[in-house]
Amino acid sequence: MKTAGRLTAAIEILTDFNSRRVPLKTAMADWARGNRYAGAKDRAWISGLCLDVLRKKNSLTAAMGDDNPRALALGAIRFLWRMPVGELGEVAAEEPHGAGALSDDEIQSLSTSLPLFPAEAGIQPQEELDSLPTAKRSDHKQRAFARGDERELETAPHISGDFPEWLTPHITRALGDEAATIMSAFAARADVDLRLNTLKAEPEKSLKALKSVQSEAVPILTTSARIVAPDPAERAPAVTIIPAYNKGWLEVQDLGSQIAAAAAGAIKGAQVLDYCAGGGGKTLALAALMGNTGQLYAYDNDARRLKPLFHRAKRAGLRNLQIRSPAAGEGLDDLEDKMDVVFVDAPCSGAGTWRRHPDTKWRLTQAQLTRRMDEQDKVLGEAARYCKPGGGMVWVTCSFLKEENEDRIEAFLAEHSDFATSSVIEQITASGIITEEGRAVLAPCITPDGALRLTPDKLRADGFFVAVLTRV
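Request: output the structure for the sequence above.
Response:
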């Protein structure tokens, strides 16, 4: 496919996403089924543009003066993908697959230098604006700032931070004066993070095998590596087809998720329950920390989520894992009051994953957030039953919102006087995989209660909240 056809496809998919409110992945798959001529590179290009539009939806809307899919797609190619206006005009007007010639309003919007896209675009849009007739420049300036003066446009947190306006009080409560800056990091592309599986190979050996995909060690954890996010129109290296991956030497896992797993601490020889195991990413990380000693139990109340774990555990070389599936009528009654560590990767809004799944922030509602909070209260109460006196419970969400974290823990502690908060950073240190540099990087993430709130502006990882509760 030519660029013209790809751009048109992206507009069609974004239009479908808006009308049906389905996950972007679903809209993309539905389009691909009806357009089987599109190759892997075409789909990567189209998907990349759609994701970038949703990452920067509010700032693109402000720049273009319109929030329809065509305007947003054009704005993303211009301001994020750095295509000159002249070239973009030719692409849009190309017959027969182009999206249609640019209008005068679109040309003006695409040629105006707005503060929302400074060095990021790497272009000189003001020079192009200066070439326009004076009347058109002033008309556009008036239209671009119709919602407020330039300063208001720059400082409105939900615009510069690219998140739904209704979430402003929730986000500013959690992030304070840094909200707009931190949320801008949530609107950036994510790197590909890898966990080096010490059950199968030493980290040095795995890192050598990863040279072919341009991966480098992350100095925060001794078992982490990273592939820097590719250019917008390019696909990330295919990690899952290299021999090292298929040998089980590594797993694709966000750095924040790896740090969260390390909060289980020194667990070799321990009895550990992963209470909301899901597909098992953190289960595998826990097993590596245990060195295949002790006993690791994986459970999820939705048996379908556990399905990938059976294969993943075998590939990763786990020998101390019991998967308890409700589909087989397997419960946890025999584990009550016996676990050294209960790991709770709780259901949440997923706000911390907005770099990778930007469509979810535009689909989240207050009702959904409230429902998650209710589920979290229930999960905390249930998981506590399995923690033995002197044992610990690790609370993890891929959300940075206080409503899903501090508030839930406070409510739990009010009803469970036999639990108290503990220092997460000390637990992670006890795991043995954090470096001195890692401790320094995590220091600004520590909350007053000793928990961690991880955000991408500090370590280019997804947003996570991690707390440790000790049964005293």
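The radius of gyration is 24 Å.
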